[in-house]
Each structure stands twice: as C-alpha cells, then as structure tokens.
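Researcher: Next sequence.
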Amino acid sequence: MTAFRVAVVGGATYAIARSGNLYAIPASGAAPGAPTYVRYQQADQIAPAGATGWIVPHLAMITWEAPTSGGTVTSYVITPSISGVAQTPVTCTVSSLTKLGQYIPGNADSWTVTAVGPGGSSSPVTATPVGPSGALTVYTNDVTVPPGGNISNFDIHDSHLILGDGATATNGIVRGWTTGETVAYLQAGANCTITDVRVGGGADGVTPSTGANGFLCGGPGTVMKRCEIRYVGDGIHCDGGVIFDGVLVHFLANSATSPVSSPHSDALQTLSVSPSGPINVYRSLWMGGTATNMFFEDWGNGPTSGVDIDTNVILSERNGGGSSGFAINFANTGSQGNPISCRVVNNWISNSADWTVAGGGLSLPTNAVTSGNYHLDGSPA
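Model: Next structure:
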C-alpha cells in the first residue's frame, strides 16, 4: 500500500506519495473544471432547392462530457446565443440527467455549456458541430483498415471506408458519390470505434445520394460517437450490440429536405438485435425520411430485446407519400414475437410522430420502460 501525506502548496491541496509524487486533491469548495467534448446537432432550418413540404422546428441537441478536473458539479448551464446576443439560459441539474445532453428550442446559432458546483462555475465552453475538424488527407480510392488498425484525419472521395474488426476511424469524411451506388459508404465489422466522422454528401458535401446508405455495421461491440450522416438513402443499417452516441442523421433521400426521390429511407434500421446484443441510442438527433426514424426488428431470430433509447430528439422529415413516418417502430417481421426489455426514456419527439408498434398486432410489452418522453410542444409522448 502506498503511504500518502497531505500538504498545502500555494493554496492548493496535494497528496504526497512516499515516492515524492504530488497528486492534486480538489478542495470541496473548488470550482469545477470545464466540460469537455461540447458539441451541437442542429435541426435543418433551410431546405435545399427542390425540396417540398419542409416543416422542421428550430432546435438543437447539445451534448458534452463531464469535467476531468476541479470540484463537484451539481448542474450545467447551457446558454444559447443569436448573432452574439445571449438568450435565456437552460439549467440542467446533474440529478435530472440520465445522459449529458439537452434539447434546446429556438433559432440560436451558438451555445455554451458551463459546469456549476458549490465552489463556483467553470469557464463556459462553446459547442462545436459534430463531425470532423482541422486539416484532412484526401483519398480517391476505397480505403480498407485492417483488423485492429486505425485511420484518422481523412477525406475519402467517391469511395468507401471499410473497417475490419477492432479498427478505429477518427476525424474524417466519407463523401461517397451521388449516382450508381447501392452499398453503404462506411462499413464496419465488430468492436470498431468511429468518432468525429461525417458520411455522405458527395464531392461538394451537400448533394443527395440516389441509393446508397450511410453506415453499415455487421458486428457487435461497435461504437459511433459525435458523427454526422447526411444526404443518403437509409442513414444506418446495423445488427445488435452497437452504441450510437451524439449522432446527427438528416437530409435523407425523399425526406422533406431532399429533392431526391427514393422508395424508402429510415434514419436507423436494425436487422438482428437479439442474437448480437442490444442497441443503445443516446444523445442524438434523428430526422427520418419517407419511412421511420428508428426501425427495430430481428428477422425471425426471436423477439427484439435490449433496445435502449435515451435523451434523443426524434423528428419527422417526410416529403409526402411512403408510410406514416413513425418516430420509433418495433416491428414483428417473421412472427418473432413481442419485443422485450426495451427502454425509451427522456426523448423529445416531433408532434406529428410518436413511437409505435406495428405488424401482427404487436404491442409494446408492459415491462418496457417508457418515461419522460415529450413532444416538442411539451405534451406527453
């Protein structure tokens, strides 16, 4: 066991190990450090040329991580601004947050997050958009990352990014192309980590695809964080065992904000949930197209189970036609039975959509947790 003694140096308190190493001890009255990884996901407020039926409220999802230093945090304050003028702040107590994310209505163009505790407040941190930043290296051919490998700071044009099991992709763009493609631009195996990546949009970043999907994940253990998927058919196809955290999916084919016609577009579609593990969907903004924002099924492998949907903004973005634009749809393909052990909590859902259960008289099971979900007008969802 390492022996410590305590000393105060320059007003700061330290634990001194027998080796002589100093370890800072935040005083109980110290102000918290600043929040980290402060990001925003903003609803599409301007429809591209050719779009019809566009109705999207002004809002944003703000996410952050806890400070790594300083005193105790009891709340966070999110301050929106419009053209540099601060608006009414929103305070979130730590006890009320199941995830560090908050829906902020209004047409603000910037946001800061401040940590508050008994010892004072941290410096405010300005939110930056999800996705990549900084200088990126251009690739013009398919890029395959071997199992356990990594790629970072990339900009892939007219090609795919394919990740082997256990691979990592950090800070980059997979643009894809806009015609003649039906395979997902970003493909991953099991146990991959994908952070700060944007998928879709073609060479100019804003041209819709005519058929390709954004992200295909066929293995459990994969995590996607602080990413953006846009201007594709379906946003995401995946099996179970995947975590989505701080993801923005929008401008899908045949949605209200896309002039491209497509027979189908889901923001998130799962193909096999139960055998591969649960699906965890946290702190993200989903804007579905003609079909459904989140579509969960298990293709005859048994009932869908372990879906956890917590602290998301879920909006309809349909362009007419198609199905009814469910926010969340637990399906019953192949008579797989009622979903079990599912949790849908603390989400904000557009007034024209609600979670639903469709197919074969299926109903959401009584053991599912469905609390704290609201429409954007404040009514229970």
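Model: The chain has no helices and 37 strands. The CA atoms of residues 36 and 105 lie 22 Å apart.
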